[in-house]
Amino acid sequence: MVGPLGCPGFTYRPRLEIGALSSRSSAGDPSVKERYTIDASVWVAALLPTDVHHQSSRDVLVRLMAQNASIICPTLILPEVAAAVARNTDRDDLAIQSSESVGDFPGMTLHLLEHDLAMKAARLAAMHRLRGADAIYIAIAAEEQAVLITWDAEMHNRGAAAVRTITPDELLSLL
Q: Is 173 a residue whose pLDDT tops 60?
C-alpha cells in the first residue's frame, strides 16, 4: 500500500511510541546512528505535490525510512500538518489523513511538550529570537542530540546556534 507520503510499503499502524522521551531517550544509545527532528515545513512539502520543495522533501523522507532512521518530533507536528494541508487543499479529510500518516511514519517517536521541555524551548526562543513553535522543535532536537531538518530559513539560521540544522537538499547530498 502507498500512503499519502507516497512511500511504498507504508501502511497505517496503531500508534507507535507516544510520550515524553525524557524517561526513554535514545540519546547516547550506540545502536542508533543518527536521530532527526523534522520540521512541519518538510512534512507539508512532501505531502503537497504543488509545493516547490515537494520532490526533495519526499526523497529525504523515503531515504530516512529506508535507513530505519530515528525521527523525533513534537506532538505539535500533528495539528501543524493538518492545518497546513487543510489550508492548502480545502480538504479536511486529506488534512486528517496526512496528519495521521506523519504520526505513523516508520521510525517516528512523538514527544510530548511537558514543563521542563517547554521551559527549555522558552529559553531558546528568548536567547535566539525564535518563534515559539520553532523553539519547541529545536529544544527536542537539542535534548535528543538530533539533526533538525527544515526548509524554514529563519529556523535553520537561528536554530544553528543550538543544534545542527540542515535542509532536505543538504541532507540528500550527504546520504
A: yes
Count Cβ neighbours within 10 Å for each residue of 137-174 and write b for 16 or more, e otherwise: bbbbbbbbbbbbbbbbeebbebbeebbebbbbeebeee
Strands laid side by side in the 165-166 sheet: 17-19, 108-111, 70-74, 35-38, 147-149, 165-166
Structure-derived torsion over alpha carbons of residues 99, 157, 149, 14, reported in degrees to the nearest 10: -30
Amino acid (one-letter) located at 47: L
Question: How far is 126 from 145, CA to CA, in rounded Å?
Answer: 21
Q: Is the whole-model pTM more than 0.85?
A: no
C-alpha cell at 123: 529559553
In the chain, the domains with their CATH numbers are 34-174 (3.40.50.1010)
